[in-house]
Structure formats: C-alpha cells, structure tokens
Amino acid sequence: MSLIFSADKCTLCGACVDACPFGVLSLEGERLSIGEGCTLCGACVEVCEAEALALPEAEGPSPRPGVPLGGIWVFAEQRQGRLAPVALELLGEARRLAAELSVPVAAVLLGDRVAHLAPELFRAGADKVYLAEHPALAEFVEGPYAAALTEIAARFGPEILLAGATYVGRAFIPQVAAGLRTGLTADCTAFALDPERRLLLQTRPAFGGNIMATIITPRTYPQMATARPGVFKRLADPCPGEGEVVRVELGSLTAAGPCTFVGTVEEIRERLPLAEAEVIVAGGRGLKEAKHFRMLEDLAELLGGAVGATRAAVDAGWIPYAHQIGQTGKTVAPKLYIAVGISGAIQHLAGIQSSDFIVAINKDPEAPIFKVADIGLVGDLFEIVPALIAAIRRERE
Amino acid sequence: MLKIIVCIKQVPETDKVRLDPETHTLIREGVQAIINPFDLYALEAGLRLKEAQGGQVTLLTMGPPQAEAALREALGYGADEARLLSDRAFAGADTWATALTLAQAVRKLGGADLIFTGKQAIDGDTAQVGPMLATILGIPYVAWARKLTWAGDGVLEVERLLDHGYDALRVRLPAVVSVVKEINEPRVPSFKAKMQAKKAVIPTWTLADLELDPHEVGLAGSFTQVVRVFPPPARGESEIWRGDPQELAARLWARLKELGRR
Ligand SMILES: Cc1cc2nc3c(=O)[nH]c(=O)nc-3n(C[C@H](O)[C@H](O)[C@H](O)COP(=O)(O)OP(=O)(O)OC[C@H]3O[C@@H](n4cnc5c(N)ncnc54)[C@H](O)[C@@H]3O)c2cc1C
Ligand SMILES: Nc1ncnc2c1ncn2[C@@H]1O[C@H](COP(=O)(O)O)[C@@H](O)[C@H]1O
Questions:
Q1: A285 lines ligand 1 (CB under 6 A)
Q2: Residue A229, beta-bridge partner list
Q3: Positive/negative CA dihedral, A111, A239, A230, A156
Q4: Which residues of B touch A40 (CB under 8 A)?
Q5: Does residue A224 sit in the same domain as residue A96?
Q6: How far is CA B95 from CA A185, A242, B17, B79, B156, in A?
Q7: Chain A, nearest residue to B226 by Cα
Q8: Angle, CA A69 vertex, CA A66 and CA A70 arms, to 5°
Q9: Of A13-22, A383-392, B171-180, which gets the smallest average pLDDT?
Q10: Bridge-partner residues for B83, per DSSP?
Q11: Rounded to the nearest whole angstrom, what is the distance from the C-alpha of residue A312 to the centroid of ligand 1?
C-alpha cells in the first residue's frame, strides 16, 4: 500500500518534502519522488494545498459492524479501595460525549470487595456500574485484569471504552484492545465526536509533544483510548449517587494463572501525589544540590502543592524517581506549574504541556522553558525563591 | 538454553522534530534515525539474562529497509542475530498491525522464552506494541520492569513500577516483558562485536515469508487511522520579567494571588 500521488495536480511547491518526518519525499527534476520508508503518516497530505497527495483508502478486513448499544464506558481504576482520580475525570468527559450520542455511561469496576465504590462512580457520572469481584483482581496483574475487562466488554458491547493513561491503564488496556480485535489510541488529551459517522476523534501528542495527531477507529468496536490524567474535568455538579449495579460472574478467571502477585516492595509516599496536585513546584539541575530541594518543598507547602523534578535532578540523586516529570516520568496537568532551574528540554515539556499556567525561574534568558512559560523570571533562583517564600510568609503572619 | 527476542524500533530523534509555527511543516534538518533509546535497556536486559543463564538473543524489527542500520548497530552490543521485517505492505501499520507482524515473525522463529520490549517508542509514545504482541501470542505480559531475578524452573521474578510504587510478580515463561530505564545501564559496544556486526548477514522477511495476508498488515490491517496532524496549540505570549530579585518575587506573589482567585 502506498501514498497516492497525482502528478497532474502537483505544483512542485515542496511543502510535502519539508513536512515529511521521515525524509522520504524529494523533488527530482519535474517530479515528486516517494522513496522507501513511507509510513503513510499523512503529514504530507495535510500540507498539500494542491491536493495532489492522498492516503490510500484502507479497505478493512470486514465492514463496520452495527453500533453496539452498551454506550460509553470508563474503566474505574482503583487500588485498595481508592479510585484513581482520572477515572472520575473520564466519567465527566464520558457524560459530555454521551449527551451528544444519546447513549448511557457505564463504569467498569474490577477488584476484590470494591462494591462500596459504586456510589462514587454514579456521582461522577455513571448510569451503570459493571462490577466484577474476584480474589485474582485484588492487586493489579495484567493477565487477570485484561481477561476480566475483555470478557465484560465482549458480553455487554460498549461503543466507546476509555481508561486513564496511568501505569496500570497503559499496561493492560492494549491487551484488552488486542483481545477485542479493535483499535486503541494512547494518552489522549482531547476527544470530540463526528456524530454522523459516530466516530470518536481522539487527539494526542506524538513525537515528544512536537506534533498533535487526531486518530479514529473507523471499522471496529469499541473505539478505545487511554487518556492523560488531569486533562479532563470532573462534573461540576455531581449526579445523584444511584444507578444500576450489574454484577458480572467471570468465566475467564482462574485462581493460578502464569503470572501472580507477590507483594508491594516499595510504596512511594507522597504528601500529595503529583497527579492530584493543583500546584507543582519543580526543580532541575539549576538547584545544584539535593539539600536545595528543601527550599522547593517549603514553597510547595506554602502554595498547597507538590514537588516535581527533571530527569537531570533525579539522575543526580537529589530526589526520588517518583517525582520525575516528563516523557519518562509522569505527565501532570496542574493549575500552576513553577519551573525552577529547569532548561525546558522537550522531554520535560512533554510532561507539563497541559498545565494551565507556567512560571519559569531561570538565569539563562535563552532557556527554552521561557517559550512555554506564561511568566518567565530571568534571574538567580537562589535569590528569587527565598524572596518569594519570605514574601508569602510575611503576609501570612 | 534461553531463547530471548528483543524488539527494537528505529525512530527519528524526536527532540529534533519540530513543526515550523508559521508554515506548519516539520523542520527536519539534522533529524537522525536512532535506535529507540528505551530499547537499549531492553537489549541490555536480554544480554544480561543470556550471560547469566545461557541462551541466544535475537533482534527483531519491523520497518523500512533503512531500519537494517538499527539492527546492525544493536548487533554491535552483542546480540547473536537479527531479522528485519520489511515490505511495502507493512507501511502505515498501527500498533495492532505492528504487533501482529512481529507475532508472526516470533512464530516463524519457533517462539521464545522471553521477549523484551522498551517502555515505549519515542516517536509514538504509545507503549502498546508489547502488550498487544503478548495477547496475540497468548502469553503473559509484564509491564515496566525495573529488576529481574531468575527464580529457576522457568520462573522469573519481576519488580515493576506502578503509580503507587514497586510491585513484585512471578511469571512463568514464556512471557513478554517491557522494561523501564532504571533496570540497567546499557553497555558500551565492544570493538570486536562492532566489527562482527558490520559483517553480519541480516535476513529480511517479507509479507510472503511471514505468510501473512496483505489485508492483515500495514495500513489495511490497522484498526486506527490518523486523520489529521497539526502543531500543538500555541500557548499565550510569554511575559518575561527581569530586574531586582526581591521585586520580582513580590510581583510574582501578587500575580499568583490574582490567579488563585480566578
Ligand atoms: C529518551 C529521553 C527521555 C527523557 N525523559 C525525560 C523526562 O521524563 N523528564 C525530564 O525532565 N527529562 C528527560 N530527559 C532529559 C532531558 O533531555 C534533559 O536532559 C533534562 O530535562 C534537563 O534537566 P534540567 O532542566 O534540570 O537540566 P539542565 O538542562 O542542565 O538545565 C538547568 C537549568 O538551570 C538553570 N540554572 C542554573 N543555575 C541557576 C540559578 N542559580 N538560577 C536560575 N537558573 C539556574 C540553567 O540556566 C539551565 O537552564 C530525557 C532524555 C531522553 C534522551
Ligand atoms: N516496528 C517495530 N519493530 C520492532 N519492535 C517494535 C516496533 N514498534 C514498537 N516496537 C517495540 O515495542 C515497544 C513499544 O513501542 P510503542 O508501542 O510503539 O510505544 C518498543 O520499545 C519496541 O521494543
């Protein structure tokens, strides 16, 4: 399968050549040449004003089946009886989408003795809760979780299935998609609908956040996506805490699968988890020494927030990995992000893109962090941060 | 003898990929193709297991012909052999079609005891290929491993990262395991291995070799489709403040209070 090129429409403008992330397009004399290595990503089609380029129409293995009637589902991730905030956020988003499609919203709750969480899910927007309780689901293990969710979805037919892009969600949701033979879009930051074709338009960052892509699952159900924590909003007005609980007896779970939980070896103790913090004060290599993170903790505490860090600070051993933000750490979406002594490498920015307001403190006016900051303070952090702490304390006393 | 497969991907160096804010085209200058950095940890995990338990490490990649360079480079770290899965029909594959193609190659290789993948590929950042591969092969998947201990008797103990901390699991092989960067420090390739890698023969397997149907692979076999690519929404203008640190701090506090009230 290859790119469709209409030489007669081509104006040889070269826009596509610049747009190709893989460098496989070139202008050779009077003709566009398409080299080896085209991944059909469509970046060139997007920029071609002459409409000389097109993606081949993908012919599916099967035509799109009838719309399943199960509505929009959210995986209600929980651990030890506590729901992950992203599940509640996604129920809010699901309600918004469900109103457009006129379908119900359901949450799927897996665990051992977790029935008491159902009212919270109803309040967050679920009309129905599919509940499966089993000792094999007490702690998260990919195999049993994937088997359970796959079985429930296969039986009750969701049109759309959303889950948080947490470590748990990103570990087993791909297995559910593969088990159901349907598509999955990772780590989305926005959803919209094409109501006519009932398509979920799933938007996500790619290439480390340099590019956004909108992706659809045109031929199969459910349309599945994982979504970034902190990006979607919970319902402003909670629904009544009532609805239908559908208990599901699972046929697919056995007591001893090939993979079993042994124990938790290390808990990350945080005063306030990064994913839930409305304010994050993050430090980078500019802090110079581990002990200077104390200063950030003080500031974070005064602002009611949590402390984050760059990979450079984590690698230097100044702060545990749990605090790392970015492509290889956590993605966060606080109301306020204060970057202290952080250069703003693209891998770090990938994790803070969805923050509402960014303040940067850096002595290098050329630091890339200033390009994404709403307010950038050029100066020495060892002067500015203590002064800021002092100003807040003075006022509070 | 353990049969170990490491899946690697050739990716553009993403910190160099950028959209021109005016023309909305990608600035490609200086963008090189590299081995997905996370896959080097997967490779190192495979090599260490082989060294400790005895076995063979086979590299697998699906990609355009130039992806052979990534395999050759990875062979230089000490892997035993490599296969390139390449065919025009594979173009445009999403994670499902990629996993399906890789799975077929794993079967053609006669299966494996352990298949390692990186945490995610830095171009798509999806982390989906490994778990999908495991499901297609019908074997367990363990995500985000930071420590592996051989428990003997075909059982591996894995310590892995989750949102709350680290859990320990026991998994009976065969299995697919994705690794995070804390798991090891990739070695520096030896001169000798590098020289051998230069001469290594890397077989290419096509659609026909894998006995796959063209409808199952590439764009045709993909369940998802990219319909639009665009630059990230621009953030508002930055205000840059300079001056006396005390004044900057006071001004910032005043602004933060205003924000808090909104
Ligand atoms: C595959 C891959 C994945 C990665 N994943 C991540 C990730 O998840 N998260 C992440 O953060 N990074 C990640 N990185 C690393 C990233 O590329 C950068 O190296 C890192 O973010 C830099 O951290 P930094 O800003 O703290 O350090 P630096 O880049 O060294 O910046 C320090 C900044 O502090 C400023 N400074 C110094 N002293 C002062 C002072 N007294 N007052 C004010 N300012 C001062 C300097 O001007 C400088 O801008 C990844 C890299 C790769 C290759
Ligand atoms: N085309 C490919 N060929 C071989 N391995 C791949 C390919 N794509 C992804 N992988 C493996 O799957 C992991 C996750 O990739 P991804 O799902 O694309 O984020 C990577 O770290 C690789 O180990």
A1: yes
A2: none
A3: positive
A4: 91-92, 218-219
A5: yes
A6: 9, 38, 21, 25, 27
A7: A215
A8: 135
A9: A13-22
A10: B60
A11: 5
| Pairing between β-strand A279-283 and β-strand A184-188 as defined by DSSP bridges | unpaired
Residue A287 Cα, ligand 1 centroid: separation in angstroms? 11
Give the residue-averaged pLDDT of A119-133. Answer: 97
Show the domain range for B45: 2-216
How many other β-carbons are positioned within 10 Å of the β-carbon of residue A262?
13
Taking Cα atoms as reference points, which of B27, B10, B6 lies closest to residue B18? B27
Q: What is the CATH number of the domain that holds A200?
A: 3.40.50.620
Q: Does A57 touch chain B (CB under 8 A)?
A: no
DSSP code for A397: -
- Residue that has been written with the tokens 């160099």 in this structure: B16
Q: Can you read off the two tokens belonging to residue B78?
A: 């000490």
What angle separates helix A381-396 from helix A293-303, to the nearest 10 degrees? 30
For residue B60, CA distances in Å to A171, B131, B138 come to: 21, 16, 19
Residues in chain B predicted with pLDDT less than 70, given as ranges, are 14-30, 261-262
Query: Which three-class secondary structure state does DSSP give residue A100?
Result: helix
Residue A369 C-alpha to ligand 1 middle, in angstroms?
10
DSSP tag of A375: E
Per-residue pLDDT reduced to its tens digit, A78-107: 999 999 999 999 999 999 999 999 999 999
ipTM of the complex: 0.89
* Amino acid at the residue B17: V
CA distance A39 to A206: 15
Radius of gyration of chain B (CA): 22
Can you say whether residue B222 is alpha, beta or left, with left for phi > 0 and alpha for psi between -120 and 50 degrees? beta
Distance CA A242, CA A350 (A): 39
Residues in A 177-236 with any Cβ partner in B closer than 8 A? 177-179, 181-187, 201, 205-220
Dist. CA A141–CA B95, nearest whole Å: 22
Give B106-148 pLDDT, tens digit per residue: 999 999 999 999 999 988 889 999 999 999 999 999 999 999 9
Structure-token pair, residue A285: 């290599």
Ramachandran angles phi, psi of B41, nearest 5°: -70, -35
Domain that holds residue A20: 4-54
Q: What is the pLDDT of residue A17?
A: 86
DSSP string, A30-77: TEEEE-TT-----HHHHH-TT--EEPPPPPPSS---PPPSS-EEEE--
Please tell me the residue having the least CA distance from ligand 1 atom 26: A284
**What distance in Å separates the CA atoms of residue A229 and residue A224, rounded to the nearest whole number?**
16
- Which atom number of ligand 1 is nearest to the Cα of residue A382? 41
What is the per-residue pLDDT for B20? 55
Residue A116 token pair: 């008491």
The reply to whether A355 and A284 lie within a common domain is: yes
CATH code, domain carrying B101: 3.40.50.620
Residue with tokens 């089946």: A65
Query: Among all chains, which residue has been given the structure tokens 């930071």?
Result: B146
Q: Are residues A203 and A297 in the same domain?
A: no
Structure tokens at B186: 């990739």
**pLDDT (average), residues A248-272:** 86
How many structural domains comprise chain A? Answer: 3
Percent of residues, chain A, with pLDDT higher than 90: 68
Two tokens at B163? 């949102």
Q: What are the DSSP E strand ranges found in A122-270? A: 128-133, 160-164, 184-188, 190-194, 199-206, 211-216, 223-227, 244-247, 259-267
**CATH number of the domain residue A17 falls in:** 3.30.70.20
CA A267, B115, B185: angle at the middle one, nearest 5? 55
How many other C-beta atoms lie within 10 A of the C-beta of residue A309?
31
Find the ligand nearest to A331 CA: 1
